[in-house]
Specification:
The protein is an alpha+beta fold and 200 residues long. It is built from four helices and nine strands, in the order βββββββββαααα.
Length: 200
């Protein structure tokens, strides 16, 4: 049902079923893996209303949630480099365990929400192109309003650093970073922030 590929290696075929809805891959020399792709083989889809969470387990540590899979999101790339617990004494050629747990999609969505990374396993028909376009428009409007407050008019062009000239003034690139951090924080605490801002 599942496959995985560690970057630079062959497709792994050592999938083990350890419970009715739980599967694992053993990842040899895991500390040398930068990224891993986990995917549905396409032969057996999830049953309607189900999806899966993907986890990583280092020896003598707790499971770490990496992300999820669904019929609509049948593959995902996860960064493993940097997941080694800080202060750990992971030795060379350590084997880690990649776990896949099939759960009701609501449970999977709740677990993914704890990652605060915007990961989502969208149900078919729950979002259409118009909604995506509207959200993108709100994000761009939020960005424009934010950075516009930082522009400074009437500065000689030859005194403006390269990459910081807008059509009508000077804009510090630091403001883009601050906007991104602020918006990410607001969306993490309130996923409906942009909708509320639009209706205010």
């Amino acid at each position: 049902m599942f496959g995985c590929i560690a970057a630079g290696r062959l497709v792994q075929t050592n999938l083990q079923q350890v419970d009715v809805n739980k599967y694992i891959f053993e990842l040899s020399d895991a500390q040398s893996i930068n990224h891993i792709v986990v995917f549905l083989l396409g032969t057996i889809p999830f049953e309607p209303g189900f999806a899966a969470t993907v986890h990583l387990l280092w020896p003598n540590k707790e499971w770490q949630l990496l992300g999820g899979l669904s019929n609509e999101k049948a593959s995902a790339i996860f960064r493993l480099k940097g997941t080694t617990p800080s202060g750990s004494n992971i030795q060379p050629f350590t084997t880690a365990t990649l776990g896949i747990s099939i759960e009701p999609i609501e449970v999977v969505q709740q677990e993914l929400a704890t990652l605060n990374t915007g990961l989502s396993l969208v149900k078919p028909g729950s979002v259409n192109v118009t909604q995506v376009g509207q959200m993108a428009g709100r994000i761009l409007e939020n960005l424009y309003n934010y950075v516009a407050s930082f522009t400074v008019q009437n500065i000689p062009v030859n005194s403006i650093p390269v990459g910081q000239l807008t059509e009508n003034g000077y804009l510090s690139m630091k403001s883009f970073q601050t906007w991104y951090e602020n918006l990410s924080r607001k969306l993490a605490s309130n996923p409906n922030y942009l909708n509320e801002e639009k209706s205010a």
